[in-house]
Amino acid sequence: MNSQHVNGISVVGLQEGERLGSVARILLDTEGRHVAAFGVDSGGGLHSTGTPRIQWLAAEAVSAIGPDALTVPDRTSLREFAPLDGILDLGTLLKRKVVTEGGTYVGQVASAELDDRGAAVTHVEVSPGFFKSNRMVPIGQVVNIGPELIIVADAVCADAVCADDPQPDDARASDGATAREEVPQEALVFRRVVGDVEPGSGSSGRARGSR
Amino acid sequence: MNSKQLKGLPVVSIAEGIKLGTLVRAYLDPSAKRVVGFAYDAGNGLTEPDSEPKLDTGDAESLGPDVLTVRTRSAVRGEEVNRRFGELVDLGALHNRAVLTEGGASVGSVGSIDFDERTIAVTQMEVTPGHFRRPATVLAGQIRTIGPDFVVLYDATMPVEPTPVVGTRTDREVATSAEPSPR
């Protein structure tokens, strides 16, 4: 299921038959591969004047995540403090830039795919930009999640068109030199951010110091 | 008997041969799934402190399709309803309450509730899935929780069988319909 589906979904206590709040945040573990906890906004209603009250639900306390609600055994499943191993807020990953190890710009994080229990991240959805289809990157191909960039394996772009690859319908695409001239400005920016790209390496260039 | 038949039902004292009032509310024990008592409009007007006296099911002599009878006016005490008022659920307030499965899937909303006139236990619940879809029936044993915001069903209840189009289901029909009927 998509993280955008989980965000905002109602949290229901099965014992009480009561709506406990709605999912406001999703915390991942340090590696960004497993869901550590969900932040549940208990809300104060229309008359609430303060900041939303967030209580935390450990991922293992979730009974089920369905199309209309996330269910938990009872109200005691909610805690005042988040689990210690949950430090990466999925919300902060959205729109983070994604580049391959080789320095190719892939796009921006659009969302994440979770497994049926909402316990693990299975894919990261990357948006290359307007007029291009989003790409689902398996979590196994995510090399590193950094504070500014997400590094993915080169294989992500092996069979697909990435941001700085020549377009399939471009008559000059076979000319590697011309392809370099066509490199989008944004991709060049992220090459500088990732590290130095070996000159003349084009879209298959590897960043200095990469494996 | 269906919950929608209760409102307006006359309350009659057998000994005095008089009408004490008309039913306005039925109170359900959500954990036992059983009607515990009623409130009736005694017709005393808004200025009377208790214009809706409470009546336990134990105070009633019988509950029929047309009348609820008590032996005498003095038999109406409503002690259990008054004592447990905070934990009971107004049956009328259950109508249109959202119905959800354990797995987090919306089923619809409560249409009405059937209960046995003798045991006053809930036998089944009609669920309205929404526009352009037929109401479905959920047996009492398939209901996990009756809560303030949701009625939660066991996941194993799905799919929910449709309600018969005509006729009233007797207790025997309800008991033998535990197995889903082939379509």
In brief, what are we looking at here?
By secondary structure, chain A is mostly beta strands. Chain A contains four helices and 14 strands.
Blueprint of the fold:
The complex is a heterodimer of chains A (211) and B (183).
Chain A: H1 3-6, E1 10-13, E2 18-28, E3 35-41, E4 54-58, E5 64-65, E6 69-72, E7 78-79, E8 88-89, H2 90-93, E9 97-100, E10 105-114, E11 121-127, E12 135-138, E13 142-145, E14 149-152, H3 176-181, H4 185-194
Parallel strand pairs in A: 1-6, 9-14
Antiparallel strand pairs in A: 1-2, 2-3, 2-8, 3-4, 4-7, 5-6, 9-10, 10-11, 11-12, 13-14
Chain B: E1 10-13, E2 18-29, E3 34-41, E4 54-56, E5 60-63, E6 68-70, H1 79-83, E7 89-90, H2 91-94, E8 98-101, E9 106-115, E10 122-128, E11 136-139, E12 143-146, E13 150-153, E14 161-162, H3 171-176
Parallel strand pairs in B: 1-6, 8-13
Antiparallel strand pairs in B: 1-2, 2-3, 2-7, 3-4, 5-6, 8-9, 9-10, 10-11, 11-14, 12-13
Keywords:
heterodimer; A: about 210 residues; mainly beta; 8-stranded mixed sheet; disordered C terminus; B: mainly beta; 7-stranded mixed sheet
3D structure, described in words:
The complex is a heterodimer of chains A (211) and B (183). With 211 residues, chain A is mainly β. Chain A is 11% helix and 33% strand. Chain A has 4 helices and 14 strands. In chain A, the strands form 2 sheets. In chain A, strands 1, 2, 3, 4, 5, 6, 7 and 8 form an 8-stranded mixed beta sheet that branches. A 6-stranded mixed beta sheet of chain A has the order 12-11-10-9-14-13. In chain A, a hairpin with a 6-residue loop joins strand 2 (18-28) and strand 3. Chain A is elongated and about 50 Å long. The two termini of chain A are 33 Å apart. In chain B, the strands form 2 sheets. In chain B, strands 1, 2, 3, 4, 5, 6 and 7 form a 7-stranded mixed beta sheet that branches. Chain B has a 7-stranded mixed beta sheet with strand order 12-13-8-9-10-11-14, with no helix packed on it. The two termini of chain B are 27 Å apart. Chain B has helices at residues 79-83, 91-94, 171-176; strands spanning 10-13, 18-29, 34-41, 54-56, 60-63, 68-70, 89-90, 98-101, 106-115, 122-128, 136-139, 143-146, 150-153, 161-162. Chain B is mainly beta. Chain B is 8% helix and 39% strand. In chain B, a hairpin with a 4-residue loop joins strand 2 and strand 3 (34-41). Chain B is elongated and about 50 Å long. Residues 163-175 of chain B have low confidence and may be disordered. Chains A and B meet through strand 5 and strand 6 of A and strand 12 and strand 13 of B.
